[in-house]
């Protein structure tokens, strides 16, 4: 399909990323898969390549490009190769927007140079055991010390992507009790140094998919957080969390579209090589019809993902549009990847084939960043229902 979303600079970046993946990721990816995470020094390589600094201002060592299109290229190229960059996606997609939106000049000087280089990896700790999507129900607390120099953090978080390797984690905690008329009041955000005393990483969670992305439980026991590490204003954290949801949901939508496109590519290559009953699987009419139907769905998902990308870069992507893009693209990916695995037959169930890993990785897209049911609620509300 003809696309207008990328220009020559993006395509040159694509060639760089494709070559990097072929040289630095594909040869060792099976080792990462078995280990359940990418090695920490890989993130330094991403920093050297400039990936973490694309949207960081030049004064802090970045490229100062205010666009998500380079991220989109990375989504497409990692999916195309059947690999991932570990837990680094949350570093840029979740960590950076909060720093850019909330950090003071002093905080940016402290944080952004190491953010861009990969020396300091960031994660976001929002979800707690037992609360799930109910962020306002969180129990983690941060109490200001009597001398006013620091907060004392206590509580636990779970499902924290990038949590094993993170050097700083944006922790959401209660600094005040909820109000009777506003249970969202009283939440604050802190950039917590993971080397702090009382901070601990619990289990590295054993997930169905996304095996190379480290996901962990975190615990805080009387962790001292300097007041200089409060992000934004006290008690206004819930509002800050909401402002970044559109870009997060765009990222999930675009990643899901890229996975669906990759699945069609994997299936097409497989059926052209695989022979049954004396002829290739690709020569059967059912195969042609299945792949044609999948390609049509991918084309539609690409258009939706591209439109959301343009709106995001223009600062115009609404909550309802982001929800619609996420719902559509993740549901398309679910259908397409399932059908493409079917075309692989028994081999599609083997983890040595990228379609099997893709099938497992894709399942969480309809859960995290807001479930499909939550997306439908947001869309319905925007319709006046």
UniProtKB/TrEMBL annotation:
The chain positions of domain Acyl-CoA dehydrogenase/oxidase N-terminal read 7-119
Swiss-Prot/TrEMBL cofactor(s): FAD
Domain Acyl-CoA dehydrogenase/oxidase C-terminal: start-end pairs: 235-383
User: Which residues does the UniProt record annotate as the domain Acyl-CoA oxidase/dehydrogenase middle?
Assistant: 123-223
> Where would you find the membrane-spanning parts of this chain?
none
Taxonomically, the superkingdom here is Bacteria
Going by the UniProt record, its keywords in alphabetical order are: FAD, Flavoprotein, Oxidoreductase
- Oxidoreductase found in the keyword field: yes
Tell me yes or no: is Coiled coil among this UniProt entry's keywords: no
Q: Which InterPro entries match?
A: Acyl-CoA_DH_CS (IPR006089), Acyl-CoA_Oxase/DH_mid-dom (IPR006091), Acyl-CoA_Oxase/DH_mid-dom_sf (IPR046373), AcylCo_DH-like_C (IPR036250), AcylCo_DH/oxidase_C (IPR009075), AcylCoA_DH/ox_N (IPR013786), AcylCoA_DH/ox_N_sf (IPR037069), AcylCoA_DH/oxidase_NM_dom_sf (IPR009100)
What does the similarity note say? Belongs to the acyl-CoA dehydrogenase family.
Full protein name: Acyl-CoA dehydrogenase
Report the source organism.
Streptomyces rubiginosohelvolus
């Amino acid at each position: 399909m003809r696309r207008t979303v990328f220009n020559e600079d993006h395509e040159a970046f694509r060639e760089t990323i494709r070559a990097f993946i072929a040289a630095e990721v594909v040869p060792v990816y099976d080792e990462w898969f078995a280990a359940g995470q990418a090695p920490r020094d890989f993130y330094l390589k991403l920093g050297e390549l400039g990936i973490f600094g694309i949207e960081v201002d030049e004064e802090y060592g970045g490229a100062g490009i205010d666009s998500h299109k380079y991220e989109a290229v990375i989504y497409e190229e990692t999916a195309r190769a059947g690999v991932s960059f570990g837990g680094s996606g949350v570093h840029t997609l979740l960590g950076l927007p909060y720093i850019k939106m909330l950090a003071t000049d002093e905080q940016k000087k402290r944080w952004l140079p190491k953010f861009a280089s990969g020396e300091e990896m960031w994660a976001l700790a929002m979800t707690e055991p037992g609360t799930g999507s109910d962020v306002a129900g969180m129990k983690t607390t941060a109490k200001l010390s009597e001398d006013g120099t620091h907060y004392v953090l206590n509580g636990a978080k779970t499902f924290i992507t990038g949590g094993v390797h993170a050097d700083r984690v944006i922790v959401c905690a209660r600094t005040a009790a909820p109000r009777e008329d506003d249970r969202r009041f009283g939440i604050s955000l802190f950039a917590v140094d993971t080397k702090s005393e009382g901070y601990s990483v619990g289990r590295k969670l054993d997930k169905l998919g996304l095996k190379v992305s480290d996901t962990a439980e975190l615990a805080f026991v009387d962790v001292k957080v300097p007041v200089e590490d409060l992000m934004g204003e006290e008690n206004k954290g819930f509002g800050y969390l909401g402002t970044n949801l559109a870009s997060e949901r765009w990222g999930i939508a675009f990643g899901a579209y890229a996975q669906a496109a990759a699945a069609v590519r994997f299936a097409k290559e497989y059926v052209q090589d695989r022979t049954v009953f004396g002829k290739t699987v690709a020569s059967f009419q059912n195969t042609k019809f299945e792949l044609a139907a999948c390609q049509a769905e991918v084309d539609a998902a690409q258009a939706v993902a591209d439109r959301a990308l343009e709106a995001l870069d223009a600062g115009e992507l609404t909550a309802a549009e982001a929800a619609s893009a996420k719902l559509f693209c993740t549901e398309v990916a679910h259908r397409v990847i399932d059908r493409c695995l079917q075309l692989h037959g028994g081999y599609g169930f083997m983890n040595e084939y990228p379609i099997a890993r893709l099938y497992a990785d894709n399942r969480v897209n309809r859960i995290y960043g807001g479930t499909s049911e939550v997306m439908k609620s947001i869309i319905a509300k925007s319709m006046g229902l």
